[in-house]
Amino acid sequence: MAINETTIDAPRQAVWDVLADPPSYEEWVVGNSGIRDYDRDWPSPGTEFHHKVGLGPLNVKDKTVALEATPPSLAAHAAAVGGTPPVPRGGWS
Question: Number of structural domains, the chain?
Fold first, then answer.
């Protein structure tokens, strides 16, 4: 699995607030074309949000599952595309 790192010049709480807001993902996650539904307790472990991935009329239903969360310093999630089992895809610390 590839590992990418980036530094965000913002307070941890500001970053956490964005990561904890599923409706905002369609504004900043590349390929996300809409949020379909989400658990209101996101990103508590085991919660999910459902979204579409694609471009134009070509979309696949997708979901992301929270694996671990310790506000405001750690978030880890897994994504499932088109009904496949969730695969760990990202984290933040």
Answer: 1
